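Memo to structure team: turn this sequence into structure tokens by end of day. - J.P.
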Amino acid sequence: MNKTKYLALAFAALTLGACTSDDVVVNDDPNIAQGGEKSYVSLAINLPTQPSTRVTDTDGESVDLDDGTENEYAVKSGILVLFTGENEAAATCVSAYTLNVDGFQTQTPDDDQITSKATLVEEVAKPSTTKKENIYALVILNPNSVVTVDGTSLKISNEAFNGTFKSFTEKAVSISDISAVNGNGFMMSNAPLYSAAGGKTKPTDGASVSTLAIMDKDKFYTNQTTATSNPAATIYVERAVAKVTVTAEDAQTVTGSTNVVGYDVAGWTLDVTNKKTYLVRNVACTPSWWQYANESATSTDKYRFVGSTAVTTDKYRTYWGIDPNYSGSITVADEFNNADGVIDDNNLKNADGKTPLYCLENTFDTQNMMNDQTTRVILKAKLNLTSGLAEDDGTFYVLDDKTGTIYKEDGIKDAVKVWVQAWINDNKATYFTSGTIDGDDLTVTLPTSEDDEGGYIDVTKVEVNASITGITWVQGQSVTTLNSAIASNLKTIIGDHKIGYYKNGYSYYEVRIKHFGDGQTPWTSTSNEGSYGSGNTGENNWLGRWGVLRNNWYDLNIKVKNIGSPEVPDVTNKPDDPEDLYVAVTINVLSWAKRETQNVEL
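Reply from structure team:
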């Protein structure tokens, strides 16, 4: 008997017996690459073209808008990141590759000059996995140097990354200039998709969201030709920024104000924009919001967080996400770009509905749904008042924000004189024993120099005229000492009065941007006394009412209906509702082909 032969057979039997379902699988097909081998893999990549219009305001008008501009779809570069693991969150980054994106550039564009999908082939080392493990794909298009590849290693802001996908979704990057994510093509990455429909129906229990694409392990091929015609995964991407356009046409008539007869729009800009973002949309919500609905919603798409139209089999778009300053205690000045009362006229955009501005997504829980954290549009307009109300150059004044009464400069000075006269009468015994001081004896100086841009102004100086006569002064007192006392007490004399100086007739309006808006998240002043409550009740009803989400296009249709602010309005830490609007607004919120129009009357 050949003992050696039996020992070999025994060893083989032991080896086979030791195999488990976790062992690496070897495929006998010579066209299919083994783990660790050089291989070719193709990916079918779909750019964000599916529309999902939702009217945010019940009085809003639906508008037809195109899918966007050619540059918003341009793909100039790309990165493929491979993860392996038994589930998406715990999957670990194993390699990264620079993608050849010629597939987007060589296809024939459709009628509106947009190439919306392409199949890209890349040479990679096939990751080794067990039967229980998946290979996941993440695609980042137009990474704009925020994300880079060094060999086969992924770098975020020049730091190597080899962690889990969960940690990747929590990796925040600071963006000082929006061009960092759209300067050389709009940065795009995998879109989170849900496994059950929402909208009109409640998403089914047990459904889940996925961002990474599971790759078919048997479609890593040893030859490029076979890979080209057999994509290992289909990936749907979305842009990393939100888009805003504004339509605000000049008007010769105005409803809502007897003093304003018309206006000319100077332009608009964005304010209170986020400084930080995640590289992919973070949807790791706790507690889960997917089944939230406001039972008072007038929209038929009551289950607002998930779309009702499948982008592919059992995969639906999602409509919310977590940004780096979503909840908790936030230092507003550190987290958001704020105009702080000043905008550059040279940077104002045309309110033609076609000229966009872009910003990072800015979302928050209901506890942080505050003015100073909500992205807003600032509109500047030159008001034309009823004849005789304004100065020849259009300048006018308003006291204490009571826009029903308009003043010229002399009218404001007369009001100041009344306040000063009252103070003089209250303190008369200190300064003189006989005689009177009236308005004709006072000179008021306002800070209305050529360099002043308008706004809320302080009175520069008020003096009793040195030539005044008929006054018997208390010993040691004189017009000089009285004027000194007026100067020292001027702030007290003016008190809480606010003087609004509308230089050349320019007025400013703020419009905070609604995401779900009134149709899906109706709110009234009696809903919760100016706040959104706490816990799941508030979140169910109003989470996502305000905010801007990546890959969503917010089109605002604005009409001025009254006098606004003489300067860029300050932000406050008050809840976003209720609003004192001087405009009528319809917001069209679209998922880049596009989100519905927001109409606003100001």
